Fold:
Amino acid sequence: MSNKLRVGIVGYGKMGGIRHQTINARHDAEVVALCDPFADLSGNGDIACYKDWRELLQQPLDAIVVSCTNDLIPTVAVEALNMGRHVFCEKPPGRNVEDVTSIYEASGAKPELILKFGFNHRYHDSVMDAHNLVNSGRMGRLLWMRGAYGKAGGPEYDQNWRNDPEKSGGGILLDQGIHMIDLFHSFCGEFNEVQGMVGRQYWQVPVEDNAFALMRNDAGQVALLHSSATQWRHTFRLEIYLEKGFLKLGGILSSTMTYGKESLVIARCQYDKSNYPLPNPEETVTYYDHDRSWEREMDEFVTSIHANEPVKVGTVDHALAAMRAVYAIYGSDANWSRELSKKGTVG
Structure:
């Protein structure tokens, strides 16, 4: 491998373009090949462009960014690993648990290669600051969490490939809710009890437009999730309640800025003379102006390759755990589980 990492991108939609910019802003990596059978790849200078991802993999590359549709993610990722390429994979990491398991097994056969998944929400400043507070223990033990992540669908939402189960594997829970599940896991680990209600309430699509879940882990910590494509005001909200107060994360600095300004509310309990917590503790609010999540996660990927060290965020174990949780929610709703079985997408 040369001093500057040679990277190829498979899938050049919105995320492929973001990854391209992030990589080329570095001094130790550059994009040298692109592949997308549908996108206009002209105007990319001397970068080699392909319509077939197999042709791209034949080039002398060090790493591959997989930004294609969910149905192709495991195929491209597994082949890239088998050919000795480091792999950065977008989320969701496939359509079902079997897809992620195939990547997991391919990675296990090539332990010298770096594999990372794009769960960029862990890198948002509000999330990182919340982690520091929770891990410090100053606010006591985490008791429970409540997360809502939703959008209003948008123009031609019902025609988007993300609502085609053959390509996506699922709807809003798999596409967007998986981020909140990964955040839950990052704060308190995986859940062994899951109760969910999944449905199609508004959009005429063959996948879910709303999912509600109640989850509990071995430590008794509980998380409530609502993932929605009928949240008419775009919403990201994560509440974390601890023994000595609470944290509220709101807004995400997305490219559209429709989720509002990113913020972190911190409230520490006040107590009476008998040491009982008083209601409505004073809140302090921090606002964040810059989204460095894309930069930070690519930095870990590239730096890990150069240093020959495993990644800590967005590991294949994180991806597999998140996908298992998604399908545990699907499976806990008997009606939805039967529908998935008819479509052959249960994983």
